[in-house]
Write a structure and sequence with these properties.
41% helix, WH_DNA-bd_sf, sequence-specific DNA binding, D-Maltodextrin-Binding Protein, domain 2, 13 strands, transcription regulation, alpha/beta
């Protein structure tokens, strides 16, 4: 008995037919006639020396041999498709597909897109704003920007600037609440998108960092950071603003951070791509642009006393 593989077209016809359990649907997916598909499967059965399908009146079902072959055929074509996609995309230096969370996209990436387009007019930038974990190959993603602690095994992972949080508000509201103690009477707001962090990064921890024993219990809660920041911009209240979400508004004066004490987080944003892909021209250009943009607002962080959150004593 030889291990020589049968023709790839015959195996492909079998894999699709086994997935659909229908010759007609398989023929439609492969854009061939049912007779042509049936011929391919028949030739595969002759190569094997056993039937792979039981042909019923209006349906088919797998034989024991078909059930044995189907999982491996499916896995093999899945891997082959992934490899082909990866190889094909190596030839494309003009398209860059980036995924980032909706809040980071809205507050950091989107306001700066004009600058990237002006600096790299030959790169077609595409965004997928999602928190869903994506497969770089299956979802055809070049770069992911994600927030958390990592690690990121098997990926090129570049930590971006340290993240911190500090109370931010409109200049008008800052005039009403000039000191941390005055915040006891202020309309405080809550960004619930970072509730997963450990140790917790919340108002109670920040007040503890400035020497106050105070836990606010009332205020508007937001599931997304950009919505909380938008509310602060509108003068609706004061929020613990995350660096990436508020840095541009602080730098340009739409928001202020009057108390100068920030909590430094363990979690951070990372620039992620498949290992080795970081040298592709459009990915390298995008990474450099992000780092350059971060440097433009670095002076804001320099004005703050950043206390590592793990150094804030617990009760």
């Amino acid at each position: 008995m030889t291990d020589r593989l049968p023709p790839l077209t015959a195996l492909r016809a079998f894999e699709v037919a086994a997935r659909h359990m229908s010759f007609a649907l398989a023929a439609s997916e492969l854009n061939v006639t049912p007779a042509a598909l049936s011929f391919q499967i028949k030739s595969l059965e002759e190569h094997l020396g056993k039937p792979l399908f039981v042909r019923l009146n209006r349906a088919v079902k797998l034989t024991e041999a078909g059930r044995m072959l189907a999982p491996g055929a499916s896995a093999g074509f899945t891997e082959l498709t992934k490899a082909w996609r990866m190889t094909r995309r190596l030839q494309d230096n003009a398209t860059l597909t980036v995924t980032a969370g909706p809040a980071f996209t809205a507050k950091w990436l989107a306001p700066r897109l004009y600058e990237f387009a002006r600096a790299q007019p030959d790169i077609d930038l595409r965004f997928t704003a999602s928190l869903r974990l994506m497969d770089f190959v299956q979802d055809e993603i070049d770069v992911a920007i994600r927030f958390g602690n990592g690690p990121d095994p098997g990926l090129y992972s570049r930590p971006l600037r340290q993240e911190w949080v500090t109370p931010v508000m409109s200049p008008e509201m800052a005039a009403q609440y000039p000191t941390p103690s005055s915040l006891r009477n202020a309309p405080l707001m809550f960004d619930n998108s970072i509730n997963f962090l450990d140790p917790p990064c919340d108002w109670t921890t920040w007040f503890r960092a400035v020497g106050m024993d105070y836990t606010p219990t009332h205020g508007a809660h937001f599931s997304q950071a950009d919505h909380a920041v938008d509310a602060a911009l509108a003068g609706a209240g004061i929020v613990l603003g995350r660096r990436a979400m508020v840095i541009k508004d602080l730098h340009e004066g739409r928001l202020v951070a009057p108390y100068k004490v920030a909590l430094g987080l363990k979690a951070h944003f990372r620039f992620l791509c498949p290992l080795g892909a970081e040298t592709r021209p459009q990915i390298a250009a995008f990474e450099k642009w992000i780092l350059d943009e971060i440097d433009k607002t670095a002076s804001v962080s320099d004005t703050l006393q950043i206390i590592p959150i793990e150094n804030v004593s617990t009760p």
